[in-house]
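I am going through a labmate's work and have reached the protein record below. What it holds is a sequence and that sequence's fold in token form. Please read both lines and tell me whether the tokens look consistent with the sequence. Do not assume that whoever made the record got everything right. Thanks in advance; the entry in question is below.
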Amino acid sequence: MVQDTLMKWQSREVRPGLTVDIPADAPPAVFGGADAGNFIAGDELIHVGIFWGPGEDLSLWRANMAKVQGRTFGAETSGTVCGRPARRMEVTVPGHSAHFSGGTSGEGYSVTPTKVLVFFAFELGATPVVVYFSAPSDERERYLADELHFLTSIKCSP
């Protein structure tokens, strides 16, 4: 039995032919246009991203994430998004903490939790698309219904 989502979601067309539910309480950052761009939304715990255009695939994301010290990659597997063939990859990025002092911020600590990112890559027509859902690894089970909601909310039209 799937639990109810913890987050509020709203449907949004992120580019022509691609609609997805995004976190309702977090204003998105949108860059680009119909041919290439990205759309990112979330809060301090949960992030979603949609990237489209030439070169967007899991190999690009694997290469970028390989630069993060201590990250671990899960196996790349097959799946579907919008009824289209897709590739899936999970990446765990270790958390860290930092101490800062001086400047206008004063002194304090910043803590970033260990995160799990779930990526799916597929094509919308001839346009490559990558979507991801990110949650703190120790909260993943708690937000599993939200992860599933996001991934199943993706709607494609020709």
